[in-house]
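User: structure tokens for this one?
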Amino acid sequence: MAAITKTELPLPLLASGKVRDVYELPDSDNLLFVATDRVSCFDVVLSNGIPSKGSILTSLSEFWFHLLSTKIPTLQTHFVSLSLPASLHLSIPRSLKPQLQRRSMVVRRLEVLKIESIVRGYITGSAWSSYRKDGTVCGIRLSDGLRESERLEKPLWTPSTKAAAGEKDENISPEEAANLIGKEYAMQIEKLSLSIYDIASNHARGRGIIIADTKLEFGLDKSTSPPSVVLIDEVLTPDSSRFWSVEKYAVGKPQESLDKQFVRDWLIEEGLKGKEGVELPEDVIEMTGERYRNAFRFLVGKEWEEEVEVAGENS
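Assistant:
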């Protein structure tokens, strides 16, 4: 199966991000999110993609939207459906259907809050680099003597800027986030993000996965008074999170990942970090795809192939 790195639907294209293409739906306040198989690392989109990646991200997001909504009754999300509106389903040519199969999601159209909400339960990645330098992570001082990949005493909320395509996100302090979007919204996002991480990490650990950290995004529903904070975009996927094996976890070293970190590591080893025009070799594509499918299997409790088979029967 070939990777889908570009979509061309007979709809107005609102935005084309690092991974997702966003279309306007006619006669609707909703949008159509289509997750491609594009791969973005270090804020650069690579030349080729990973087959079925977008479908896995979409199915995992759907799983988490439903689970989190049952655990946090007050949580609002932008998720509407994985099913296309009937009129659109009939009007799209058969040749374009593969671009949408299990990778499209109808969502509410909302104002996006311009920060990325990162929760870290373990010290790794850029947090580990920052801690080694001056003992802090995003302006938050941590206790001495932490080792790489060690579980933190309590999860940290460490927001970042939300950069436009082609630009780089930057870690910021909670105080800087409050200055960017307003203190009340920042407080709500911090509280929701930590609750989401707690629920998700407990679920994942019971399935053999450690969620070391994750990135969440939020929007505003201005139809309510006051405007409501809403969970948007993808949720707790191998693109937005670090997933480790509980069985293989060991403090004091980097962990074997079930996420995009495998591609990041390859880019670093090859001296290609941040370079444009990089094409992944077939073995890296295959091994990364296997990691994404394994993450789905652990978290959802069934094989990815079963999900594809059910989707085919319902299409």
